[in-house]
Amino acid sequence: MTVRLPYSRSLQLHIMRSRRPRRFPDVKHLRSGKVVRSKRGAPEPTEERASKTRKTDPAAAVQPHLDLPIEPEDQVKDVLPKLDQNSVLLSLPGELRNRIYLLALEEPFDIPPPTRIRSKALSAVVRSSLAKFTVHEKLDFLGLTQTCSTLRTEFRPLWLAATRVPLSAVAGYIKVFYPSVMPKRVPTAIRERVAIHSDSKGRLEIIMPSGPDRFDGIDGTIDLLPLLKHHLRFPEMRIQLSRAHADVQAGTLALEALLENQAERWLTWLKKRVITQVRITDLSNPHYNTRVAMKIVLKEQHAPMWMKSTLHATERVPAGYLDSLGLGDYIVRFGVAYP
């Protein structure tokens, strides 16, 4: 028994056609162009039958049909010009390149910009508020050491021998160009290459910060320990402290004395990593005008009991203790770094 739905005739035909499986033409017929089916699946007339039934357009009869040939990919000409891979600087003789290197290393006559101190202890709000008042330091002609291997091999030893680095950027400079400890996964070839380029007999010029006070702007925010360890590692490297003004302040003299300190206990502390921080501070006290204040932080396992007391820290230093460290001319405050 057939149940008839109360649909119209057109709607029933639409439902039947939608349920009918579609018949797609064979791929061979599509390539030959003989059979082309419509969307509903009914075959359309071929080109031969359609040409007999349809009317010819007079405008189409006048214009000929143009078939553009398609060239293979290997025969297609590149319309873009090829870039010249040959550098003009590398094509010059070696004498001229050396002259260019020496001109790039000439010291400028302008006053170096003030250093920008980056402290992790500062909050993000303070750093953002001070960003517009600070100046980013730039290492002159650093790009020549990163252009290609040829320029790096030729220019890098000269650049390292005459580099002017701000005091606030010395720690990052030493970490990048004179790495002390490399991971074990670094290949031996890279280790040997770094050892070759690390010139231990060069010159490192440090630009001291410009400040109105007698401490050259050193306010205790710059850790001098990386520079002291670097000088101990490369004793033949000449470290020069330069200032924008001719007068030498107490902060520069104190740093030079630390670099030249050869006390046995002091060198032992540096070699065995007993110290974690060395900072020159300004006590801003009229009674301390003749001497420079300094803060030294030691690890907990190496600090004696009197250093762990926070009350009257400067008065608890035993007699002759600073002289054994070669720091008898300084007011030293010791601190302890707890894990």
Task: Explain what this protein looks like in three dimensions.
- The chain is an alpha/beta fold and 339 residues long.
- It has a domain at 111-337.
- The protein has 14 helices and 6 strands.
- The chain has helices at 9-19, 27-32, 47-53, 58-62, 88-91, 94-104, 124-130, 149-161, 170-177, 188-197, 225-233, 250-259, 264-271, 321-324; strands at residues 163-166, 203-207, 238-242, 275-281, 292-299, 330-337.
- The strands form 2 sheets. Strands 1-2-3 form a 3-stranded parallel β-sheet. Strands 4-5-6 form a 3-stranded mixed β-sheet.
- The longest helix has 13 residues, at 149-161.
- The protein is extended, with a radius of gyration of 40 Å.
- The chain starts with 8 loop residues before the first helix and ends with a strand.
- 11% of the residues are buried.
- Residues 59-68, 113-119 and 129-136 have low confidence and may be disordered.
C-alpha termini separation:
91 Å
Mean pLDDT: 70
Radius of gyration from the alpha-carbon trace, in angstroms: 40 Å
What is the helix/strand order? HHHHHHHHEHHEHEHHEEHE
Query: Based on CA inertia axes, which overall geometry fits?
Result: extended
Largest sheet: 3 strands, parallel
Strand content: 5-15%
Helix/strand/pairing category = alpha/beta
Helix amount, in percent?
A: 25-40%
Q: Which parts are unreliable, with pLDDT below 50 for 5 consecutive residues or more?
A: 59-68, 113-119, 129-136
Strand order of the largest sheet: 1-2-3
Number of helices: 14
What's the total number of strands? 6
